[in-house]
Amino acid sequence: MSDLTTVELLWLKGRIENRIRFGRPISEKIIDRHRRVLSFATGSIFAFVRWTSNDFGTVLSRIDILRAASSRQRYSTIPWVIPGGESLLRLSGWAKVERALQLIDAVEALGINPADAAPDYWHHVHNRLSVSETPRTYTQARHQAWLRRRKRGL
Fold this sequence. Notes:
The chain is an alpha+beta fold. It has helices at residues 94-109, 119-128, 140-152, and strands at residues 5-12, 16-22, 27-30, 35-40, 45-54, 57-68, 76-78, 81-92. This is Glycosidase.
């Protein structure tokens, strides 16, 4: 069994959109006009956004920020993600998903790839995010502290 985490992306206009918001895939396989499969190395962080609608409107809005897990680690199972991943953030409902996307944009505005942000930041968002509450934003100082901890292996 491979230690890659694969994510199947699907796009059917006006019906289904599964996409990666950020992350560094190491390979991509195009299946057809509507489907492709991305592979992520163990330990890499990525955001997977899912949206589905029917004739009456949106029925699903979800974002999962995951750390790719090896087959020998514990992981959460997520539809379209094989084998699964360590869940850093899981939100449902458009208002919360939209807020999470805004926070991702804010990290990018600092010149930081969200895939490089401290995993505990995504846990923080998960534990404190509500539509009326503003979670602590990611900062350059926090990012530098994370890089130092990561370098020391903490």
